[in-house]
Amino acid sequence: MSGLFEELHRKLESDTGKRGISAWDLAQLPAGQRRVIRLILREVQMAYPELCRATAALPAEQRLEQGELDEVLTRLQEKAWLIRLGQEELTTYRVNLRRKSGSRLASSIWERLGRQIDARKPATRQQE
Amino acid sequence: MSRIISIHSFRGGTGKSNISANLAALLAIEGRRVGVVDTDIQSPGLHVLFGLDEKQMKLTLNEYLRGECAIEEVAYTLGNGAKHAPGRGKLFDRDIWVIPSSINAGEISAILRHGYDVNRLNEGLQRVRKQLALDYLIIDTHPGLNDETLLSIAFSDVLIVVLRLDQQDFQGTAVAVDIARSLDVPELMLVVNQALSRYDFQQVQQQVTETYNAPVAAVLPLTEDLVELQSSDIFALRSPEHPWSIALRHIATRLLESA
Fold first, then answer.
1. Class of A2-101 in CATH
2. What is the pTM of this model?
3. Closest CA to B36 of B16, B56, B53, B11
4. Right CATH number for B3-257 from 1.20.120.450, 3.30.70.270, 3.40.50.300, 3.40.1180.10?
5. From the list A42, A96, A100, which residue is nearest B155 (CB)?
6. Which residues of A touch B147 (CB under 8 A)?
7. Which of A85, B102, B146, B250 is close enough to B62 for a disulfide, judged by CB 3.0 to 4.6 Å?
8. What tens digit of pLDDT does each residue of B151-181 get?
9. Pairing assessment for the beta strands B136-140 and A92-95 based on DSSP bridges
10. Nearest to residue B78, comparing CAs of B51, B46, B110, B43?
11. Residue B81 per-residue DSSP state
């Protein structure tokens, strides 16, 4: 039964994970979108006015006008790679990173490994 | 403003953790506030260089990723225990924090089995950078290319790719450099490690620079002295006049100057 549960949990986790952005996705993004993601990643979350200031302060060749920034934010939200929190001036954005998925090895292998690790613990303590 | 430096190699065994620890130590000796984190969760080793053992590391990055503690709780200072090692001893009153990954087999297998929330990893690293007011956060990555490694590269200010003069390293490094460029890392530098002493280091530096069209920050010699130490101390502080240490100091100086 636990095997079936684990299998379903893994599938759910894998499907849910697809909603976040992976570093591989990030490498494929258009430059403007990647720049915005990078800015937010370093701050964890950013309010809209902060984002406007940060993108306006970029070197001239990387700078985003407000319209371009709005377009980027819309595109990233459509893919659920950016999460919008709050309304109007209080709006903040967070990057939705894809969860690191667990192993696809059969659960019985992990259970056996876990039992062996547990069995070794008392012996280790005695040695100490 | 603090800088994030990822230290990476495409293949294992290049001396990446040794370089991470020594570079962190050299920056701390210069009076900077430095954090160094082991994101090589599958095969951690950074803690050894700082003399941390399983008893001292009651909590690690693994427990933080599982939501069992705050990131600040897994940032260890070296304290008086460091005084016993001639190199590390110089760090006991310096502002350096080590964030280790667990060496407990059960903890490693739990992460491999269940995965983890990458958002939490990013939040932790950014939080510790701000809470500890770090000048530098050095990230010792897992070799090769995986999600967490690419993530740390993606938000870094500087990426240092370590390679040896080996055909397998050459090909892998080309991949790592390509990925770094596609992730817009502002500053990329290469470090050649374990170069044979009979080589002309200037020529090596020039050839590697031309091959990857990226600057080579240093060519570090293969040295038995470092191997003999068996990661039991910080070599650059223990033997500061050794050619390996002098070459590494050039990288630290470069980082300090470009800040």
1. mainly alpha
2. 0.89
3. B16
4. 3.40.50.300
5. A42
6. 22-24, 98, 100
7. B102
8. 899 999 999 999 999 998 988 999 999 989 9
9. unpaired
10. B51
11. G
